[in-house]
Write a structure and sequence with these properties.
This protein has ten helices and twelve strands. The protein has a single domain, classed as P-loop containing nucleotide triphosphate hydrolases (Rossmann fold, 3-Layer(aba) Sandwich), CATH 3.40.50. Helix content is 30%, strand content 23%. Helix 3 (123-133) crosses helix 4, helix 3 (123-133) runs parallel beside helix 5 (169-181) and helix 4 (139-152) packs across helix 5 (169-181). The chain has helices at residues 66-73, 96-105, 123-133, 139-152, 169-181, 199-216, 227-233, 251-256, 261-268, 309-313, and strands spanning 13-26, 38-51, 55-59, 81-86, 89-90, 106-109, 187-191, 219-223, 236-241, 244-250, 318-322, 325-328. It is of the alpha/beta class. The protein starts with 12 loop residues before the first strand and ends in a 6-residue tail after the last strand.
């Protein structure tokens, strides 16, 4: 049963993101001195929340700002503005000491596990390192905690003494997951955690994530461009386009009745499970605009088949379609 079928009013918000922004300044040459400074608006006024034990999927095509959102939440890159409330406390204004406590409870799993693993260290020491940094457990207890965590993610005890290059891609992702889980967090931010894996290995890792969530009551922010994977994993989905959230809805409702033209185009590219059923694919014309010089009004109007004059001039407000279903599009303005 999807989470949206439950009574969400009784659930606590684990993470609340309000008007998150991340603008990267662009360096210009001597010929541009005195001219207006430019910036890449990678993330612009993104707002969403995650409940305890819920999976929130963040989707969109490459370059839309999904990964920047994930890294900004933990201040791996410093946001330009907004609020990120974890259990009611703003991460963006937290002190260094408080930030260390938050990172114990909010962990990140990266897309490429190999690049995030120190090739000179054995796996046991890599997973033990967070325990040392956060001063958790006595020295003689840490190896037992690491081995227990390895078991949780489906690895063998003998893997403790091996190096990262001795593992397959799927095993490395399990190691990255074990390193995040060893601190017993409440929320995992996962940036394309299965995109680099073969399909058969993807299913194993996805099923493992489902089991871990059930056993440990974990909340997930699941960032991906694969709509089929997100459909299986997520309770609610947010659709991003050019740094902004254009639609948000419970998973079943989004797939059954997408509202935004961009969401419809994304879902039309998902293969139909029924071979005999014909599915019309929506082909978007034109290229993704530059976030350094985004279009005025609705950012999607340059590729939208329904764009009118108002779309080019006015930014659409977020409209409520039904419970927990919102869309930012002039087609649904009152």
């Amino acid at each position: 049963m999807k989470l949206q079928a439950r009574n969400e009013s009784k659930k606590n918000k684990l993470l609340e993101v309000k008007h998150l922004k991340k603008h990267f300044p662009v360096k210009r040459g001597l010929l541009h001195i005195g001219k207006k400074p430019l910036s890449v608006k990678a993330v612009n006024h993104v707002t969403f929340h995650i409940y305890e034990g819920e999976t929130y999927g963040l989707v969109g095509e490459s370059g839309c700002g999904k990964s920047t959102v994930g890294r900004s939440l933990l201040r791996l890159i410093e946001p330009s503005g907004g609020q990120v409330l974890y259990e009611g406390q703003d991460i963006l204004t937290a002190s260094k000491k408080h930030m260390q406590h938050i990172r114990q409870e909010v962990q990140m799993v990266f897309q490429d596990p190999y690049s995030s693993l120190n090739p000179r260290k054995r796996i046991g020491k890599i997973i033990e390192e967070p325990l040392i940094i956060h001063k958790l457990g006595a020295a003689d207890e840490r190896s037992d905690i690491v081995m227990e965590t390895l078991s949780k993610v489906g690895l063998q005890l003998e893997h403790y003494y091996r190096y990262p290059h001795e593992f397959s891609g799927g095993q490395r992702q399990r190691i990255g997951l074990a390193r995040a889980l060893v601190l017993n967090p409440k929320l995992l931010i996962m940036d394309e955690p299965v995109s680099a894996l073969d399909v058969s290995i993807q299913s194993q890792v996805i099923n493992l994530l489902k089991k871990l969530q059930q056993d440990m009551s974990l909340g997930y922010l699941f960032i991906s461009h694969d709509m089929s994977v997100v459909r299986y994993m997520a309770d609610r989905i947010g659709v991003m386009y050019l740094g902004e959230l254009v639609e948000e809805a419970p998973t079943d409702e989004l797939f059954a009745s997408p509202m935004h033209p961009y969401t419809k185009a994304l879902l039309s590219a998902v293969p139909a499970p029924n071979i005999g059923r014909k599915k019309e694919q929506i082909i978007l014309k034109g290229e993704l605009p530059s976030p350094m010089n985004p279009p005025t009004g609705c950012k999607f109007h340059t590729r939208c088949p329904f764009a009118e004059k108002e779309c080019k001039q006015t930014v659409p407000n977020k409209q409520k379609i039904s419970d927990n279903h919102y869309v930012a599009c002039h087609l649904y303005q009152p």
